[in-house]
Amino acid sequence: VPEVTLISCDMTMPVIGMGTSPYPKVDPETAITAILEAIRAGYRHFDTAFVYGSERDLGGAIAEALRLGLVKSRSELFITTKLSASFAERDLVVPAINMSLRNLQLEYVDMYIIHWPFKLGKVVSSMPVEKGVLLPLDIKSVWEGMEECKRLGLARGIGVSNFTSEMLEDLLSIAKIPPALNQLEMNPLWQLKELREFCKAKGIHVTAYSPLGSTPSRFGDNKVLGSKVLQDMAKAKGKTTAQIALRWVYQQGVSLVTKSSNKERMNQNLDIFSWSLTEEELDKISRLPQHKTISFASIMGPHDVVLRIDAGL
Ligand code: A2P
Fold first, then answer.
1. Does 124 score more than 70 pLDDT?
2. CATH number belonging to domain 3-297
3. What is the pTM of this model?
4. What ranges in 109-227 are assigned the alpha helix state H?
5. I want to staple 17 with a disulfide (CB 3.0 to 4.6 A). Which of 45, 61, 129, 150 is the partner?
Protein backbone atom coordinates (compact mmCIF):
# COMPACT_ATOMS: atom_id res chain seq x y z
CA VAL A 1 0.00 0.00 0.00
CA PRO A 2 1.48 3.38 -1.00
CA GLU A 3 2.07 6.06 1.62
CA VAL A 4 1.16 9.73 1.60
CA THR A 5 3.25 12.46 3.17
CA LEU A 6 1.60 14.60 5.82
CA ILE A 7 3.40 17.88 5.46
CA SER A 8 2.70 19.65 8.73
CA CYS A 9 3.77 16.74 10.91
CA ASP A 10 6.51 15.49 8.59
CA MET A 11 5.35 11.90 8.56
CA THR A 12 3.87 9.34 6.20
CA MET A 13 0.64 7.35 6.36
CA PRO A 14 -0.57 4.32 4.38
CA VAL A 15 -3.20 5.59 1.92
CA ILE A 16 -5.71 2.91 2.90
CA GLY A 17 -6.90 2.51 6.46
CA MET A 18 -9.28 -0.03 7.93
CA GLY A 19 -12.22 1.54 9.74
CA THR A 20 -13.53 0.27 13.07
CA SER A 21 -16.73 2.27 13.43
CA PRO A 22 -19.39 0.56 15.51
CA TYR A 23 -22.15 -0.27 13.02
CA PRO A 24 -23.03 -3.02 12.84
CA LYS A 25 -21.96 -3.63 16.43
CA VAL A 26 -20.13 -6.90 16.91
CA ASP A 27 -18.80 -8.68 19.98
CA PRO A 28 -15.13 -8.12 20.92
CA GLU A 29 -13.98 -11.53 19.72
CA THR A 30 -15.48 -11.01 16.26
CA ALA A 31 -14.03 -7.49 16.10
CA ILE A 32 -10.55 -8.68 17.10
CA THR A 33 -10.67 -11.56 14.62
CA ALA A 34 -11.58 -9.14 11.81
CA ILE A 35 -8.73 -6.77 12.69
CA LEU A 36 -6.23 -9.66 12.75
CA GLU A 37 -7.58 -10.77 9.39
CA ALA A 38 -7.04 -7.25 8.06
CA ILE A 39 -3.44 -7.24 9.31
CA ARG A 40 -2.89 -10.58 7.58
CA ALA A 41 -4.34 -9.10 4.39
CA GLY A 42 -1.79 -6.26 4.58
CA TYR A 43 -3.63 -3.40 6.31
CA ARG A 44 -1.31 -1.38 8.53
CA HIS A 45 -3.43 1.71 9.11
CA PHE A 46 -6.41 1.46 11.49
CA ASP A 47 -8.93 4.16 12.29
CA THR A 48 -10.91 4.32 15.50
CA ALA A 49 -12.46 6.94 17.81
CA PHE A 50 -13.24 7.13 21.49
CA VAL A 51 -16.93 7.42 20.68
CA TYR A 52 -16.94 4.27 18.52
CA GLY A 53 -16.28 2.11 21.57
CA SER A 54 -13.87 0.09 19.42
CA GLU A 55 -10.56 1.27 20.90
CA ARG A 56 -10.33 -1.65 23.33
CA ASP A 57 -10.92 -4.21 20.59
CA LEU A 58 -8.34 -2.56 18.36
CA GLY A 59 -5.89 -2.48 21.27
CA GLY A 60 -6.54 -6.15 21.99
CA ALA A 61 -6.01 -7.01 18.33
CA ILE A 62 -2.73 -5.04 18.15
CA ALA A 63 -1.41 -6.82 21.23
CA GLU A 64 -2.41 -10.16 19.75
CA ALA A 65 -0.84 -9.30 16.36
CA LEU A 66 2.45 -8.51 18.10
CA ARG A 67 2.23 -11.70 20.14
CA LEU A 68 1.60 -13.76 17.00
CA GLY A 69 4.38 -11.97 15.12
CA LEU A 70 2.01 -10.68 12.39
CA VAL A 71 3.85 -7.38 12.85
CA LYS A 72 7.28 -7.15 14.39
CA SER A 73 6.85 -3.86 16.17
CA ARG A 74 4.21 -1.32 17.05
CA SER A 75 5.86 1.17 14.71
CA GLU A 76 4.76 -0.87 11.67
CA LEU A 77 1.18 0.20 12.40
CA PHE A 78 -0.45 3.58 11.86
CA ILE A 79 -3.18 4.11 14.45
CA THR A 80 -5.66 7.00 14.38
CA THR A 81 -8.13 7.88 17.09
CA LYS A 82 -10.33 10.90 17.69
CA LEU A 83 -11.15 13.40 20.41
CA SER A 84 -14.79 12.94 21.30
CA ALA A 85 -16.96 16.06 21.02
CA SER A 86 -17.78 15.43 24.70
CA PHE A 87 -14.17 16.26 25.61
CA ALA A 88 -13.66 19.21 23.27
CA GLU A 89 -12.26 21.50 25.98
CA ARG A 90 -8.69 22.63 26.57
CA ASP A 91 -8.18 20.79 29.86
CA LEU A 92 -9.90 17.60 28.77
CA VAL A 93 -7.81 16.91 25.65
CA VAL A 94 -4.76 15.35 27.31
CA PRO A 95 -6.86 13.29 29.76
CA ALA A 96 -9.00 12.17 26.79
CA ILE A 97 -6.04 10.98 24.74
CA ASN A 98 -4.63 9.22 27.79
CA MET A 99 -7.94 7.41 28.19
CA SER A 100 -7.83 6.38 24.52
CA LEU A 101 -4.22 5.23 24.89
CA ARG A 102 -5.18 3.07 27.87
CA ASN A 103 -8.00 1.53 25.80
CA LEU A 104 -5.58 0.93 22.94
CA GLN A 105 -2.79 -0.36 25.23
CA LEU A 106 -0.46 2.03 23.40
CA GLU A 107 2.03 4.70 24.41
CA TYR A 108 1.21 6.92 21.45
CA VAL A 109 -1.16 7.15 18.52
CA ASP A 110 0.05 8.09 15.07
CA MET A 111 -2.79 10.53 14.50
CA TYR A 112 -5.13 12.29 16.93
CA ILE A 113 -8.09 14.06 15.35
CA ILE A 114 -10.76 16.47 16.58
CA HIS A 115 -13.76 14.33 15.72
CA TRP A 116 -16.29 17.09 15.07
CA PRO A 117 -16.13 20.86 14.79
CA PHE A 118 -18.44 21.32 17.74
CA LYS A 119 -18.58 20.56 21.42
CA LEU A 120 -21.15 18.26 22.93
CA GLY A 121 -22.79 19.82 25.95
CA LYS A 122 -24.04 16.65 27.55
CA VAL A 123 -21.97 13.52 27.85
CA VAL A 124 -23.78 10.64 26.21
CA SER A 125 -22.69 7.10 25.83
CA SER A 126 -23.41 6.47 22.16
CA MET A 127 -22.87 8.39 18.92
CA PRO A 128 -23.14 12.04 19.87
CA VAL A 129 -25.48 14.10 17.84
CA GLU A 130 -28.62 12.16 18.63
CA LYS A 131 -28.91 13.12 22.26
CA GLY A 132 -26.27 15.73 22.98
CA VAL A 133 -26.48 19.48 22.93
CA LEU A 134 -24.25 20.98 20.27
CA LEU A 135 -22.18 23.95 21.31
CA PRO A 136 -19.64 25.99 19.38
CA LEU A 137 -16.07 24.75 19.60
CA ASP A 138 -13.45 27.04 21.13
CA ILE A 139 -10.96 26.01 18.51
CA LYS A 140 -8.06 28.06 19.87
CA SER A 141 -8.04 26.44 23.28
CA VAL A 142 -8.89 22.94 22.07
CA TRP A 143 -6.13 23.07 19.46
CA GLU A 144 -3.66 24.08 22.20
CA GLY A 145 -4.62 20.83 23.90
CA MET A 146 -4.05 18.95 20.65
CA GLU A 147 -0.63 20.57 20.22
CA GLU A 148 0.22 19.54 23.74
CA CYS A 149 -0.59 15.92 22.84
CA LYS A 150 2.00 16.14 20.10
CA ARG A 151 4.56 17.89 22.29
CA LEU A 152 4.14 15.21 24.97
CA GLY A 153 4.68 12.48 22.38
CA LEU A 154 1.18 11.08 22.90
CA ALA A 155 0.33 11.70 19.21
CA ARG A 156 2.84 11.82 16.34
CA GLY A 157 0.44 13.88 14.26
CA ILE A 158 -2.67 15.96 14.91
CA GLY A 159 -5.59 16.75 12.65
CA VAL A 160 -9.30 17.42 12.35
CA SER A 161 -12.44 15.90 10.89
CA ASN A 162 -15.57 17.35 9.33
CA PHE A 163 -14.07 20.86 9.19
CA THR A 164 -15.26 23.32 6.55
CA SER A 165 -12.88 25.80 4.92
CA GLU A 166 -14.18 28.55 7.22
CA MET A 167 -13.37 26.46 10.27
CA LEU A 168 -9.95 25.62 8.86
CA GLU A 169 -9.23 29.31 8.28
CA ASP A 170 -9.99 29.96 11.95
CA LEU A 171 -7.76 27.08 12.98
CA LEU A 172 -4.87 28.05 10.69
CA SER A 173 -4.93 31.59 12.02
CA ILE A 174 -4.08 30.40 15.54
CA ALA A 175 -2.27 27.07 15.08
CA LYS A 176 1.40 26.74 15.97
CA ILE A 177 1.29 23.27 14.45
CA PRO A 178 -1.10 23.25 11.48
CA PRO A 179 -3.48 20.28 11.17
CA ALA A 180 -1.91 17.42 9.20
CA LEU A 181 -5.20 16.31 7.73
CA ASN A 182 -8.95 16.80 7.55
CA GLN A 183 -11.00 13.60 7.52
CA LEU A 184 -14.18 14.07 5.51
CA GLU A 185 -17.08 12.07 4.20
CA MET A 186 -16.11 11.77 0.56
CA ASN A 187 -16.98 9.44 -2.27
CA PRO A 188 -17.99 9.71 -5.95
CA LEU A 189 -21.43 10.91 -4.85
CA TRP A 190 -20.07 13.45 -2.36
CA GLN A 191 -16.97 14.88 -3.96
CA LEU A 192 -16.33 18.08 -1.94
CA LYS A 193 -14.23 19.46 -4.76
CA GLU A 194 -13.97 23.03 -3.48
CA LEU A 195 -13.15 22.04 0.07
CA ARG A 196 -10.48 19.64 -1.17
CA GLU A 197 -8.92 22.34 -3.31
CA PHE A 198 -8.86 24.63 -0.30
CA CYS A 199 -7.16 21.95 1.83
CA LYS A 200 -4.60 21.28 -0.88
CA ALA A 201 -3.72 24.95 -1.16
CA LYS A 202 -3.17 25.05 2.61
CA GLY A 203 -1.08 21.88 2.77
CA ILE A 204 -3.77 19.94 4.64
CA HIS A 205 -4.10 16.35 3.47
CA VAL A 206 -7.63 14.97 2.98
CA THR A 207 -8.69 11.50 4.11
CA ALA A 208 -12.04 10.17 2.89
CA TYR A 209 -14.35 8.32 5.22
CA SER A 210 -17.39 6.41 3.98
CA PRO A 211 -15.77 6.09 0.53
CA LEU A 212 -18.37 3.44 -0.29
CA GLY A 213 -21.25 5.46 1.09
CA SER A 214 -21.08 3.61 4.39
CA THR A 215 -23.37 0.77 3.32
CA PRO A 216 -25.12 -0.86 4.99
CA SER A 217 -24.64 0.91 8.32
CA ARG A 218 -27.56 2.81 9.70
CA PHE A 219 -26.35 5.92 7.88
CA GLY A 220 -25.89 4.25 4.55
CA ASP A 221 -28.37 3.85 1.78
CA ASN A 222 -26.20 2.10 -0.75
CA LYS A 223 -26.17 5.01 -3.17
CA VAL A 224 -22.49 4.65 -4.10
CA LEU A 225 -22.51 0.90 -4.70
CA GLY A 226 -25.95 1.26 -6.32
CA SER A 227 -24.78 3.88 -8.83
CA LYS A 228 -25.52 2.67 -12.36
CA VAL A 229 -22.69 4.74 -13.83
CA LEU A 230 -20.15 3.19 -11.43
CA GLN A 231 -21.61 -0.28 -11.89
CA ASP A 232 -21.34 -0.05 -15.69
CA MET A 233 -17.80 1.25 -15.46
CA ALA A 234 -16.88 -1.62 -13.14
CA LYS A 235 -18.34 -4.19 -15.52
CA ALA A 236 -16.49 -2.73 -18.49
CA LYS A 237 -13.17 -2.81 -16.61
CA GLY A 238 -13.57 -6.18 -14.91
CA LYS A 239 -13.50 -4.52 -11.49
CA THR A 240 -16.08 -4.21 -8.71
CA THR A 241 -18.13 -1.07 -8.11
CA ALA A 242 -16.38 -0.66 -4.73
CA GLN A 243 -12.97 -0.77 -6.41
CA ILE A 244 -14.03 1.93 -8.87
CA ALA A 245 -15.14 4.15 -5.98
CA LEU A 246 -11.96 3.58 -3.98
CA ARG A 247 -9.68 4.03 -6.99
CA TRP A 248 -11.46 7.28 -7.83
CA VAL A 249 -10.79 8.58 -4.30
CA TYR A 250 -7.13 7.57 -4.57
CA GLN A 251 -6.75 9.28 -7.95
CA GLN A 252 -7.92 12.52 -6.36
CA GLY A 253 -4.79 12.45 -4.17
CA VAL A 254 -6.93 11.57 -1.17
CA SER A 255 -6.29 8.73 1.29
CA LEU A 256 -9.18 6.67 2.55
CA VAL A 257 -10.56 4.75 5.48
CA THR A 258 -12.88 1.95 4.56
CA LYS A 259 -14.31 -0.92 6.48
CA SER A 260 -14.95 -4.55 5.73
CA SER A 261 -15.24 -7.56 7.96
CA ASN A 262 -15.06 -9.91 5.00
CA LYS A 263 -11.68 -11.33 3.96
CA GLU A 264 -12.40 -11.31 0.25
CA ARG A 265 -13.61 -7.71 0.31
CA MET A 266 -10.64 -6.67 2.47
CA ASN A 267 -8.35 -8.00 -0.26
CA GLN A 268 -10.46 -6.52 -3.02
CA ASN A 269 -10.28 -3.07 -1.43
CA LEU A 270 -6.47 -3.20 -1.36
CA ASP A 271 -6.32 -4.18 -5.02
CA ILE A 272 -6.63 -0.70 -6.50
CA PHE A 273 -3.02 0.16 -7.27
CA SER A 274 -2.17 -1.89 -10.36
CA TRP A 275 -4.70 -0.23 -12.68
CA SER A 276 -6.26 3.19 -13.13
CA LEU A 277 -9.28 5.15 -14.29
CA THR A 278 -8.91 6.96 -17.61
CA GLU A 279 -9.44 10.69 -18.07
CA GLU A 280 -12.77 9.91 -19.69
CA GLU A 281 -13.87 7.79 -16.74
CA LEU A 282 -12.74 10.43 -14.26
CA ASP A 283 -14.71 13.02 -16.21
CA LYS A 284 -17.84 10.88 -16.15
CA ILE A 285 -17.56 10.41 -12.38
CA SER A 286 -17.01 14.14 -11.85
CA ARG A 287 -20.45 14.76 -13.35
CA LEU A 288 -22.39 12.37 -11.06
CA PRO A 289 -25.28 13.98 -9.14
CA GLN A 290 -24.23 14.68 -5.56
CA HIS A 291 -25.86 13.09 -2.55
CA LYS A 292 -24.71 13.22 1.07
CA THR A 293 -25.00 9.96 2.98
CA ILE A 294 -24.60 10.96 6.58
CA SER A 295 -27.50 13.30 7.09
CA PHE A 296 -26.90 14.25 10.71
CA ALA A 297 -23.51 15.51 9.72
CA SER A 298 -24.90 17.86 7.14
CA ILE A 299 -22.72 20.73 8.17
CA MET A 300 -21.29 20.92 4.71
CA GLY A 301 -23.36 21.53 1.62
CA PRO A 302 -22.03 20.58 -1.80
CA HIS A 303 -20.27 23.91 -2.09
CA ASP A 304 -18.80 23.90 1.37
CA VAL A 305 -21.62 25.99 2.73
CA VAL A 306 -22.12 25.74 6.46
CA LEU A 307 -25.70 24.72 7.01
CA ARG A 308 -25.84 25.89 10.57
CA ILE A 309 -27.11 23.37 13.06
CA ASP A 310 -29.60 24.43 15.72
CA ALA A 311 -27.05 25.16 18.39
CA GLY A 312 -25.52 27.99 16.43
CA LEU A 313 -22.39 26.48 14.99
P1 A2P B 1 -18.69 -5.89 4.76
O2 A2P B 1 -18.05 -5.73 6.11
O3 A2P B 1 -19.72 -6.95 4.75
O4 A2P B 1 -17.67 -6.04 3.65
P5 A2P B 1 -17.60 2.48 4.15
O6 A2P B 1 -16.18 2.06 4.08
O7 A2P B 1 -18.01 3.44 3.08
O8 A2P B 1 -17.98 2.95 5.53
O9 A2P B 1 -18.49 1.17 3.87
C10 A2P B 1 -18.34 0.05 4.66
C11 A2P B 1 -19.40 -0.96 4.31
O12 A2P B 1 -19.24 -1.37 2.96
C13 A2P B 1 -19.30 -2.19 5.16
O14 A2P B 1 -20.57 -2.46 5.68
C15 A2P B 1 -18.82 -3.29 4.25
O16 A2P B 1 -19.51 -4.51 4.49
C17 A2P B 1 -19.14 -2.79 2.88
N18 A2P B 1 -18.04 -3.09 1.95
C19 A2P B 1 -16.74 -2.94 2.17
N20 A2P B 1 -16.02 -3.28 1.09
C21 A2P B 1 -16.91 -3.67 0.15
C22 A2P B 1 -16.79 -4.14 -1.17
N23 A2P B 1 -15.59 -4.28 -1.75
N24 A2P B 1 -17.92 -4.46 -1.84
C25 A2P B 1 -19.13 -4.33 -1.25
N26 A2P B 1 -19.31 -3.89 0.00
C27 A2P B 1 -18.22 -3.55 0.70
1. no
2. 3.20.20.100
3. 0.91
4. 139-151, 165-174, 193-201
5. 45
